[in-house]
Amino acid sequence: MVVEVLSEVQRRKWDASDDVLFYAEPRFVQHLDGAFRARLTRLYRERLASRAVVLDLMSSWVSHLPDDVQYERVVGHGLNEKELAANKRLDSYWLQNLNIDQTIPLKNDSVDATLIVAGWQYLQYPEAVSAELLRIMRPGGQLIVAFSNRMFFTKAPQIWADGSDRDHLAYVAEVLIAQGWPKPELMAEPTRASGLQGLIGGHGDPFFAVIATKP
Ligand SMILES: C[S@@+](CC[C@H](N)C(=O)[O-])C[C@H]1O[C@@H](n2cnc3c(N)ncnc32)[C@H](O)[C@@H]1O
Predict the structure, then answer these.
(1) Model confidence, pTM
(2) Quick one: which atom of ligand 1 is closest to the CA of 115?
(3) Does any ligand 1 atom lie closer than 6 A to the CB of residue 204?
(4) Cα 44 to the chain's mean position, in Å?
(5) Which end of the chain is more exposed for a tag (fewer CB within 10 A), N or C?
(6) Does ligand 1 come within 6 angstroms of the Cβ of 117?
(7) How far apart are CA 70 and CA 49, in angstroms?
(8) 6 CA to middle of ligand 1, Å?
(9) Which of 38, 86, 85 is nearest to 64 (CA)?
(10) Would you give the distance in Å from CA 71 to the centre of its chain?
(11) In angstroms, what CA-CA distances link 55 with 111, 113, 138?
(12) What separation in Å is there between the alpha carbon of 117 and the centre of ligand 1?
């Protein structure tokens, strides 16, 4: 059963056109800087077992997994076929607009780790997605929702567009808990810019993550 957390107003976004249109052209860019990506890859190295079946939900041409770790299988999902086809970490992938259909086409208890990077902020129905993730993940499996402080503003629902970093962490946790996930771990860390800028104290993209473990 899906427990609604958001009001209809909070689900609204500036650009209400089909998200498929926004992602129709591939973007072979990095959405997050090197400092953020290094922190994320380190987290994956620490948390994901090498025998894991991994789902990279809301993926692109990169999954940020450590290059030297082989997983049992990495399944990708996203909105742009060319990006997913170019993602060397994926063993398979599918395309699906989660703002239209939240049913995830995977079996119950079949995934060890689900990763969502810079994606949750575009979900208009995160409650239904979270309930589906609880269904498809194995007991003990980890859901890692990572994000920074930027977004495609016109595509983010009002709940995200209007919130602070702290609000975002609390909001993701609230949605998960409402669907029956245990209280998640929250991470909020500054990162250090690479190169000379970092040496003189410059910051990279701040790192935020919500990590929930299925009982
Ligand atoms: C900023 S990109 C991040 C991509 C990738 N996780 C990364 O780290 O590079 C946002 C991604 O969210 C996904 N996305 C956005 N809106 C979506 C929707 N309505 N349904 C499904 N996926 C969506 C797309 O796959 C898109 O590439």
Answers:
(1) 0.97
(2) 6
(3) no
(4) 13
(5) N
(6) yes
(7) 9
(8) 20
(9) 38
(10) 18
(11) 7, 6, 12
(12) 8
User: How many residues are present in the chain?
Assistant: 215
Picking from 93, 81, 35, 43, the residue whose alpha carbon sits closest to that of residue 65 is: 43
Helix (H, G, I), strand (E, B) or coil at 203: strand
Q: Residue 20 is encoded by which pair of tokens?
A: 């498929």
Token couple for 70: 């082989």
Q: Is 78 helix (H, G, I), strand (E, B) or coil?
A: strand
Q: Is 189 exposed, middle or buried (0-12, 13-18, 19+ CB in 10 A)?
A: exposed
Question: What are the pLDDT tens digits along the chain (215 aa)?
Answer: 899 999 999 999 999 999 999 999 999 989 999 999 999 999 999 999 999 999 999 999 999 999 999 999 999 999 999 999 999 999 999 999 999 999 999 999 999 999 999 999 999 999 999 999 999 999 999 999 999 999 999 999 999 999 999 999 999 999 999 999 999 999 999 999 887 888 888 899 999 999 999 99
